[in-house]
Amino acid sequence: MRIGLLEIFGIALALAVDAFCTALSIGTAKRYPGQAFRLSFHFGLFQALMPVVGWWLGRQVVEWVQAWDHWLASGILLVIGLHMLWESFQREEEVVARDRSRKWSLVALSVATSIDALAVGVVFGVMEAAILFPCLVIGVVAGLMTLLGLHLGRRLRRRYGSWLQVAGAVLLILLAIRFLGI
Q: 14, 134 in Cβ contact below 8 A?
């Protein structure tokens, strides 16, 4: 199945919301030298690589789920979207004043913000969609959204952070409905 450029970009934006919100949060704390590069590079890299892993997993199970793959794809996107929506209404923890863009903290944040990308990769694999271009778009968008989040952190976080996550969740839910052909 071929997924269009607009859909790929929509998925990339929805997936980048976690990285953006995390960057917004980190952006409100003290800035450290090289922090913007480390966060945007790693968030973009993990967002680009996780769909490849998911795609490979999805390709392994495609024969068993081919008859109902559109239901699986829609279900996964719906679950991700609903989970993001639920997370957007949860109380946020206080930001700790330390550099979160180093060592294991950076790896943990990179993995945490890209788990949804792994699930989307499974969807691409089950749908037998191409993976290279979508991963490139997803990674670049996540890196740019991370930079934007860091830059806007002080001004926008308290006012709009959860609404951005709501928008990303709604976008994934709408894509899930579209995959069902409704």
A: no
What are the tokens at 14?
A: 């929805």
CA angle, 173 then 147 then 19, to 5°: 35
The SS3 assignment for 165 reads: helix
* C-alpha 35: how far from chain center: 20
- Sign of torsion, CA 27 33 36 39? negative
Per-residue b/e over 99-114, b at no fewer than 16 CB within 10 Å?
A: bbbeeeebeebbeebb
Cα-to-chain-centroid distance, residue 91:
20
Tokens 């081919």, residue located: 66
> What are the pLDDT digits (tens) for 44-54?
999 999 999 98
Mean pLDDT of the chain: 78
User: Which pLDDT band, with edges at 50, 70 and 90, does 35 fall under?
Assistant: confident
Coil, strand or helix: which one is 25?
helix
What does the pLDDT look like over 92-104, one tens digit per residue? Answer: 554 344 566 677 8
Tell me which residue has tokens 């926008």. Answer: 156
Using alpha carbons, select from 143, 151, 115 the residue that is nearest to residue 44: 143
